[in-house]
Amino acid sequence: MNSSNSPHLEYVELMLERTLGNRILAKTLFEKLFSTLPRQLDDLSNSLNKKDILKAKLVTHDLQGVVGNCGLINLEYYARKIDNYLSAKDIESAQKIFRILQEQIKSFIECGEKILAALEIP
């Protein structure tokens, strides 16, 4: 994803592409993401800290699917990298990439109000 002064608009465009321009569906999906991503991050963090590779892979796979299906390719990229490191049983590298993913998701969630406002029916 291209970084610009309006990253929230890029997220909106990606989601509208996935929903074939359906603003109501896009808004609903974003609202769901904003409510579930923090829990998924907590679950993944806890699993990585406990070195529970199986649980971490399950959470990562779910997270990867959710963000991928919504067209959030930057988030999907980092989730996939974590999954790859977990498959190789490289917890340290997975934790390093997790911190990047965590910051990316934090930035995404901070755009939440702007994203939802951009999807209001004109």
Describe this structure in words.
This protein is an all-alpha fold. The protein has one domain (7-118): Four Helix Bundle (Hemerythrin (Met), subunit A) (Up-down Bundle), CATH 1.20.120.160. It contains 6 helices and no strands. The longest helix has 27 residues, at 23-49. It is elongated and about 50 Å long. The protein starts with 6 loop residues before the first helix and ends with a helix.
CATH architecture: Up-down Bundle
| Poorly predicted sequence stretches spanning 5 or more consecutive residues | none
CATH fold-type name: Four Helix Bundle (Hemerythrin (Met), subunit A)
Beta content comes to under 5%
CATH level 1 name: Mainly Alpha
Q: Estimate the global geometry from the Cα principal axes.
A: elongated
**Rg calc:** 15 Å
How confident overall, as mean pLDDT? 92
Could you describe the largest sheet, including whether it forms a barrel? none
